[in-house]
Amino acid sequence: MIGGVSIEVIYWYTLLVCAGIAIILVVFGDVFDFDGPIDPMLIVPWLTFTSLFGFLGERLTPLHSVLILIISGVIATALVFLLNFYVLMPMKNAESTLSASEKTLEGQMAEVVTPIPVKGMGEIRLKSVTGSISRPACFYAPQDSPAESGERVLIIEVKDRVCYVTPYEEMLKM
């Protein structure tokens, strides 16, 4: 008993509060960027696991409360380490989009959607397995005539989301 409240009740309320905070962090965790020495994405699960195993230890074993707290803290530390190492760190390092990166667009053919004037910008569409994307485009080198809608172009370079293209000419004609 601590202040007239049983330890089981303290573990139970800690478990409920931390589980609620954990749900909020899962939903809104990307909104907040925690750069400090203590990451809530690790502290909250540690408190949750500690209170869970503490509650179960108080209910199921005849061990002393301090020993149960130490054992549950050690188990929680191991689980949080595994959670961080195998789940959170890979998720932080994972790419967050399925769209193609700018470097993978270079060398691909695209179709002109909005005509590209000799000195100006138009729009091109690239089709891939994951769908199609549209990007602004202009000529890579000076041209004599504009690229009309429906023509095929070759992407030479991508800078600041703008594709620099050249008209596509087939080499082999049969």
TrEMBL record:
From what superkingdom does this record's organism come? Answer: Bacteria
The transmembrane segments are: 12-32, 63-88
Q: What is this protein called?
A: Membrane protein NfeD2 N-terminal transmembrane domain-containing protein
- For the keyword Magnesium, the answer is no
What's in the keyword line of the UniProt record? Membrane, Transmembrane, Transmembrane helix
Q: Which Gene3D superfamilies match?
A: Nucleic acid-binding proteins (2.40.50.140)
Domain Membrane protein NfeD2 N-terminal transmembrane span(s) in chain numbering: 6-96
